[in-house]
Design a protein that fits this description.
single chain, 116 residues, mainly beta, 5-stranded antiparallel β-sheet, 3-stranded antiparallel β-sheet, elongated
Length: 116
């Protein structure tokens, strides 16, 4: 594995949602490892499954692997993209971040009518 970027796993996300903690290339694959805080308590989550190469070509990840740290309310997700090492320079990662800053307490109920 050639590490392109590496950060301590214990480092909190600067935006309170998620942080890139490692990037590496191995055997024709770019590996991006993200940490997401508050995944259980606030349903924080992120999707970084689309990468744009320098020429504008859109590249979807081949697969992801996620580890949930229930004790610390944290997810670790690795996105794996098939690509040549020389294509890593100049790429742009596109992502969606989702968060809820507050929870509302109450007696919530949802109802709906079923029709035949």
């Amino acid at each position: 594995m050639i590490f392109l970027f590496r950060r301590a796993r214990s480092g909190k996300a600067k935006n309170g949602i998620c942080a890139l903690i490692a990037a590496g290339w191995r055997n024709g694959e770019l590996h991006l490892h993200y940490r997401t805080d508050g995944s259980l308590s606030l349903d924080n989550h992120a999707d970084f499954s689309t990468l744009h190469l320098a020429d504008g070509t859109e590249l979807m990840c081949d697969y992801t692997v996620t580890y949930k740290d229930f004790d610390n309310d944290t997810d670790y997700t690795e996105y794996v993209f098939p690509m040549a090492y020389e294509d890593v320079a100049g790429c742009t990662l596109t992502g969606d971040l989702y968060t809820a800053s507050n929870l509302m307490d109450g007696r919530w109920a949802v109802s709906f009518r079923l029709t035949q």
